[in-house]
Design goal:
Blueprint (H helix, E strand, L loop, with lengths): L1 H13 L4 H28 L14
Helix pairs in contact: 1-2
């Protein structure tokens, strides 16, 4: 999170954006990366088979 925010901030500053908007855009990229991480994790969890006492693993 911090690295993405820092690097995006530096990129925007190096391309001529003022300090405050650069920091805000860097934070948006960092928050976006967190949201992407959560969405990808949720998609992966959707493909995990649920195992309970009523529905145990059945080996073929």
């Amino acid at each position: 999170f911090g690295t993405i925010s820092y690097r995006a901030n530096n990129w925007y500053i190096n391309h001529g954006l003022a300090a405050l908007p650069a920091e805000q855009h860097g934070m948006l990229w960092a928050i976006g990366s967190i949201l992407l991480f959560l969405v990808v994790g949720m998609v992966i969890l959707l493909f995990v088979k649920r195992v309970t006492a009523k529905e145990p693993i059945q080996y073929r």
